[in-house]
């Protein structure tokens, strides 16, 4: 039986934060599905840092098809969840179907990897209270408001939750997540 992992995302997600875990987890032997508000071709973005800008810049990125809509997801079919960042989490957190999916993963203590602005989604279902997390550094106050202890680190592991700041931290983020996956949901 192939183990399935779900990535939840939408338009304006950071290209690398979707496609790196997608490819890395497939390489490891997992069947990875991307869910979005609807089945469509998603339009990702590239966030980069340029001299003279106070924050990151945003440019058009890759496109990629969503495998299924949030309304089609059965969380029980998946062993783990990945939540990329970018701007997508800002509007996705308002989707009631997605909030049901997120809650299911936390209620069953399945492994969850979140990065950058992704923790805005887990905060929307009150899954960060009492946890240690990291996120894009500008979200420190948001994480504290959600009841989390923010740490500015490449990756923070709290039980089955692995969080990371942004795409430059991918290697450490996926290394920590795969350690949990191999223990809780190994590929057979």
Automatic annotation (TrEMBL):
InterPro entries linked to this entry: C56_PfpI-like, Class_I_gatase-like, DJ-1/PfpI
Gene3D superfamilies in UniProt: 3.40.50.880
SUPFAM superfamilies reported for this sequence: Class I glutamine amidotransferase-like (SSF52317)
Domain DJ-1/PfpI, residue spans: 3-178
Family designation: Belongs to the peptidase C56 family.
Name of the protein in its database record: Peptidase
Organism per entry: Streptomyces colonosanans
